[in-house]
Amino acid sequence: MISNELIQNKLQYLSNLNELDARHYVALWAMELGWGGISKVKKLTGKSMDTIRKGIHEIQTKSDIKKIGRLRRVGGGRKKIVKKNPKIKQNIESILEENTAGDPMSSLKWTNKSTYAIARELNEKGQNISEDTVGRIIKKEKYTLQSNRKSKEGGSPEKRDSQFRYINKQVKICMKKKIPFISVDTKKKELVGEFKNSGRRWMKKGQAEEVNIYDYPSLAKGKAVPYGIYEIIENNGFVNVGISGDTSEFAVNSIKRWWKNIGEKNYPTSKELFICADCGGSNGNKNKLWKYCLYKFARISKLKITVCHYPPGTSKWNKIEHKMFSFISMNWRGKPLSSYETIVNLIEGTRTDKGLKIRAKIDKRKYKKGKKVQKEDIKKIKLKVHSINPEWNYTINGN
Q: What is the model's pTM?
């Protein structure tokens, strides 16, 4: 079975060939695959079966290439649709944006919407394009078509897709109404001390920093628990670096610190807050302490707090993972996290080409694990579930 990487390399090479060489290239590819190779190559490249068969015939009969000659003058033939209508590519990308899956950190993405559906949607908007042309365009953007895979507890693919569409819709509403929209999560816990940090960085030869041979917790000064808040609209970040456990109290207190230091200043007139979080951990959708702490925060801040959770098994799609945490990891790679001050400085020193700015603070409070919420406290929570995926979407009102 040919790997996706090899297929992408072949398609990239094919795009640089002239018509004659391309015909022979796909013909050789089909012959290499053997039985069913013509139809497989047709699906992968968009070339017609007649073109592939013609190439095979020319190769097998050893036709004189010189006699075949150029089929048309340089620059001849119909202009590509993306050149005649540059907006067509943008329109396809906007459709794919809400129907994309796969690993956001990878250059290879995949869509659960067929080329037929995309072409039909464009034709309904008055843009004449075939499904084959759509296929060629999205393949150049490194998309492939695959089916969804169920997770153990993630429900049906349709339900997960509806949740992503719902979150997308809420983002657009927040942008229009200037409501703060944050993505939250806990980054991997780190030992604080002279320990090896994966990755490499440029240093003068022979001046590599020496660190402990063993990563024993007993040798550490403590542990760092970075809880991050990423402002999706403003492209700003805040990291609350805890020194104890990753509890729901710690998670909500991190959001409170972000609101006090950044959010309230950026959105002085806002009466609402939108939070996007994973389904598990300290901010899980079934975590009663998380909801109770959010309710207490809503009462103090007088905010109406809406929470949308990513479906189980899809945490990699949480914006904070690949918009903020990944860049923090890249910035401190190869550098020992020798102290809490070093961690804060490295986090705040993280920058991106798109202007990401991050602030960080140490949280010296000790958070008790296993804390329970009393039944009478749960009854106090003014929680309203949404009609769409109510187990993942709810609003807490503090008024």
A: 0.62
